[in-house]
Amino acid sequence: MEYRYLGKSGLQLSALSFGSWVTFAKQIGDNMADTLMGIAYDNGINFFDNAEVYALGESEKMMGRVLRQKNWDRTSYVISSKAFFGWRGKNNKPNQTGLSRKHLTEACHEALQRLQLDYLDLFFCHRPDKKVPIEEVVWTMNTLIQQGKILYWGTSEWSGVEIMEAFRVADQHHLIGPTTEQPQYNLFERDKMENEYLGIFRTKGLGTTIWSPLASGLLTGKYNNGIPEGSRLALSGYEWLRDGLVVEERIKKTRKLSDYANALGLDISALSIAWCLKNQNVSTAILGATKKEQLLSNLKALEILPKLTPDVMEIIDSIMLTSPRVPEY
User: Fold this and answer.
1) 3-class DSSP state for residue 244?
2) Is 119 known to be catalytic?
3) Structural domains for the chain
4) Which of 56, 163, 191, 238 has an alpha carbon within 20 to 30 A of 65's alpha carbon?
């Protein structure tokens, strides 16, 4: 396993990490979660990602049960949670969502209870909150760090402007700013990582824990001929994800990429993940899996990295045609 520093911080994360979104308490139960987390840990993965909204809190409870059963050395792994959407779904009341000091503080406490932990290594603002001053957010996260409840904080799907405003507030008041951003990044979604955040990487040393390196499974090729029953995009409640991903243009590109991967003798999934890791601004790529064979296959992405020569990367770009226009600095 390769380990990378999370931006300019001293925290080292495995280049591949393991997340619970959609799968935990939705597609798999405790036994499979235990198996998959065990495989991940045994293969050097040290970062496990979660959030309050995943399966409305049940995902964190499941991960907490697995961690308790495993009894791994707490210093050997990194755990995250994220707050914004709440965990009560349609029953959310005022102050049970968003980034107010009240919700962030209570969400942190609730995540610690569900995960059965004394502290979170990473705590993310799961989305920007247009109704809460960024000063309130930065001060709250700084307080949680001082209290020892979290070690680092970050953002998820924030704009570059919002992230820089958080840094400005932190610098102005001598507070701890965000260490990391968690954006979607894959061969279809590239603008933030390869364009919008470039100045932040350069001037602030922001780390990234990217999600959906396989575009929710689209880049595995399994949706090339329709949506299989039991797959992530077939789940009720994820129509928004399916409608945004499964469009004919993307399917055509995935088929072409599959053909190219086959010609190289490579698995398209591992190739797509390795492509993400080729970006030096990616601290870790979060994997999701429902089967051990799937996880073991995706772990081979690190073996493929050396094969992604400039020529290969150029051919992939010519197939996908998704590279953003980058301003010259």
Assistant:
1) helix
2) no
3) 3-216+279-291 (3.20.20.100)
4) 238
